[in-house]
Amino acid sequence: TVDPAELSLFDVRSFETVPGQFKTRLCYAVERSATDGPLRVGEEPDSVRFWSPEAFERDGMALSERLPPVTRTLSWWLSKAHDALEERPLDR
User: Fold this and answer.
1) Is 36 in contact with 1 (CB distance < 8 Å)?
2) pTM above 0.85, yes or no
3) How many CA atoms lie within 13 A of 53 on its CB side?
4) How is the chain split into domains, by residue range?
5) What are the two backbone dihedrals, phi and then psi, of residue 85, each rounded to the nearest 5 degrees?
6) pLDDT in tens, 9-55
7) In angstroms, rounded to a whole number, what is the distance separating the alpha carbons of residues 27 and 10?
8) Phi-psi category of residue 37: left, alpha or beta, with phi > 0 → left and psi -120 to 50 → alpha
9) pLDDT of 75-88, one tens digit each?
10) How far apart are the C-alpha atoms of 2 and 77, rounded to whole Å?
11) C-alpha gyration radius of the chain
């Protein structure tokens, strides 16, 4: 679990998954030390797996080809998440 006040929003995008069906994705970053307990799937996803950045690369995982080219690398997402955490107000 995590206190919602610890989350830092770093990416918002809307997209059409299939013709006429639209979704909005909100991406948050949080320090692992701000979480309590094991990582687990929430209510909506039917399957989720968690990787460390090293395991993601080692296991040959790839991001969706449907993403814009600039966002298809894990390093882009990690950079945005790290930037969001660094920009957090100190009074949290």
Assistant:
1) yes
2) no
3) 9
4) 4-86
5) -70, -35
6) 988 988 887 889 888 888 888 888 898 988 776 776 666 677 888 99
7) 6
8) left
9) 999 999 999 999 87
10) 20
11) 15
Question: At 19, which amino acid appears?
Answer: P
Strands (E) across the chain are located at 8-18, 21-29
Query: What are the structure tokens assigned to 1, written together?
Result: 């679990």
- Tokens read off for 32: 């692992």
Residue 45 token pair: 């996803």
Q: How many CA atoms lie within 13 A of 24 on its CB side?
A: 2
**Residues 77, 71 contacting (CB under 8 angstroms):** yes
Cβ contact 58:35 at 8 Å: no
Q: Do residues 73 and 63 make contact, with C-beta atoms less than 8 angstroms apart? A: yes
CA separation for the pair 61, 59 (Å, rounded): 6
- Which two structure tokens, joined as six digits, stand for 18? 């299939």
